[in-house]
Amino acid sequence: MDRILKASTLSEQGRGLKRILSGFFLAPLVAVIVLYAPPFWLAVTVAIIIALALNEYVSLTATRGRFWVLPAGMLTPFLFLHEGYEHLLVFTMVVVVFTASVVSILGGRDFSPAFTDTAKAVFGIIYVGFTLSHVVLFPPLQDGRLLLLTGLLVIWANDIFAYLTGRLVGRHSLSPRISPRKTIEGAIGGVAGGVVVGLGVDGLLDTGLSTAEMAGSAVAMGVFGLVGDLFESVIKRSAGVKDSGTIIPGHGGMLDRIDSMLFSLPVFYHYLTWKL
């Protein structure tokens, strides 16, 4: 038994290191897309990521209606491209709820599962589609692309430092029932690492934020990113799986890769619009 547990621990450590290393290879590609992709193609990229993540969400939650949930989610970044997108989003949300209701009506005689599927479908579109679509709202802001890249770097740094700190000095479990391997020390180290990276990027490239604003933003992204990570763990635990998928070598599924940014990027964006 001890050998099995030891082998499992080593496997987890190797898995975590593999995620970090593969992240370094993906980062330059993401940076090029964020900094130079025209708005339409940035939206196309986001739509593809949404489709992949929503497909995993539908599988994890056993939601019927994949044929319309994925296209609805993929549509959201293109709505964000237009001026006055707020009105389009409200209209789209009404259409989504209406479509989900029709699907549940036509879904069969089991009314309880039909209602549950409706709720899960609508929530999935909001949880993945609407949140991640905030990416396309950054470029129109002053220094928006640089701020978007900075936000992503802070989120990635948070994940990396949380993992390293947790492995080195983690002693107290953060949420044993949801994610036993996450520790309070790791969470604190992740937030601190995100702040350091955010301040470093700001010092090198001048994002337009003050030291206090950047530090506060990094802390907020760290906290909301942690909530996003834990929430996705709840979804996976309810489905009885360790990863949302296997689409990205070393990272698991697409939802595993973006869970931290689903809540943190919208918070960062709305803070910037309030400040700017």
Characteristic terms for this protein:
single chain, 276 residues, mainly alpha, 10 helices, 78% helix, globular, disordered N terminus
Explain briefly what this protein structure is:
By secondary structure, the protein is mainly alpha-helical. It contains 10 helices and 2 strands. It has a two-stranded antiparallel sheet.
Q: What value does the Rg take, in angstroms?
A: 19 Å
Shape descriptor reads globular
Biggest sheet: strand arrangement:
1-2
| Count of the separate structural domains | 2
Largest sheet: 2 strands, antiparallel
What is the average of the pLDDT values? 84
Uncertain runs are: 1-12
> Total number of helical segments?
10
Report the strand count: 2
N-end to C-end Cα span: 58 Å
Helicity level? over 70%
Describe the structure.
With 276 residues, the protein is mainly alpha-helical. The protein has 2 domains: 171 residues, no CATH class; 101 residues, no CATH class. The protein is 78% helix and 3% strand. Strands 1-2 form a two-stranded antiparallel sheet.
Question: Helices, strands, pairings?
Answer:
Blueprint: H1 2-36, H2 39-61, H3 66-80, H4 85-106, H5 111-132, H6 144-169, E1 173-175, E2 179-183, H7 184-205, H8 211-239, H9 254-258, H10 261-275
Antiparallel strand pairs: 1-2
Helix pairs in contact: 1-6, 2-3, 2-5, 3-4, 3-5, 4-5, 5-10, 6-7, 6-8, 6-10, 7-8, 8-10
